[in-house]
């Protein structure tokens, strides 16, 4: 008695599986194409939001804003750990998402300063810093940031007293 060769059955299963994968990829591709076509008006408004100073046609906004490009290169090439947590950064980021471009005042110049300046693209971001040497170090690396030296006449341990005073108590 001759044993049956299982090879033709396995080949049929493989071919059937490949056919279904091809069919699924065609369906997925056609669905994504129709989704993009149906939402072309959304891409126009997204382009206008990304380039508020330009006309709202998507073809006029094809480049990444220089501030964003500089920030991306800076953060991709640095190994510095952020000074704030994601939760802390998210608070200010959500405000900038709604309000930018705007006038944005930041107390302290940090490793995250370029990010804040970039998130306020088209607005004015000003940093106030107490340490002159730190300002010089940052200006060497990031000369486009607008920063000013300040001398505070109060200290953190006076915070409660100053808050009470400001509230008129």
Automatic annotation (TrEMBL):
<feature type="signal peptide">
    <location>
        <begin position="1"/>
        <end position="30"/>
    </location>
</feature>
<keyword id="KW-1133">Transmembrane helix</keyword>
<keyword id="KW-0732">Signal</keyword>
<dbReference type="Pfam" id="PF21729">
    <property type="entry name" value="IRX15_IRX15L_GXM"/>
</dbReference>
<dbReference type="InterPro" id="IPR006514">
    <property type="entry name" value="IRX15/GXM/AGM"/>
</dbReference>
<keyword id="KW-0472">Membrane</keyword>
<protein>
    <submittedName>
        <fullName>GLUCURONOXYLAN 4-O-METHYLTRANSFERASE 2-RELATED</fullName>
    </submittedName>
</protein>
<dbReference type="GO" id="GO:0000139">
    <property type="term" value="C:Golgi membrane"/>
</dbReference>
<keyword id="KW-0812">Transmembrane</keyword>
<dbReference type="GO" id="GO:0045492">
    <property type="term" value="P:xylan biosynthetic process"/>
</dbReference>
């Amino acid at each position: 008695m001759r044993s049956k060769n299982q090879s033709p059955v396995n080949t049929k299963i493989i071919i059937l599986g490949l056919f279904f994968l091809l069919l699924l990829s065609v369906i997925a591709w056609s669905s994504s194409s129709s989704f993009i076509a149906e939402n072309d008006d959304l891409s126009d408004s997204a382009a206008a939001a990304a380039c508020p100073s330009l006309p709202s046609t998507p073809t006029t906004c094809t480049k990444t804003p220089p501030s964003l490009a500089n920030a991306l290169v800076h953060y991709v090439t640095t190994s510095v750990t952020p000074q704030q947590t994601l939760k802390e950064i998210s608070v200010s980021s959500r405000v900038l998402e709604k309000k930018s471009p705007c006038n944005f005042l930041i107390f302290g110049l940090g490793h995250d300063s370029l990010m804040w300046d970039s998130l306020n693209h088209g607005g004015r971001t000003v940093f106030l810093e107490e340490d002159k040497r730190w300002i010089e170090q940052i200006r060497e690396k990031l000369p486009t940031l607008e920063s000013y030296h300040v001398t505070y006449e109060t200290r953190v341990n006076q915070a409660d007293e100053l808050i009470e005073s400001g509230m008129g108590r």
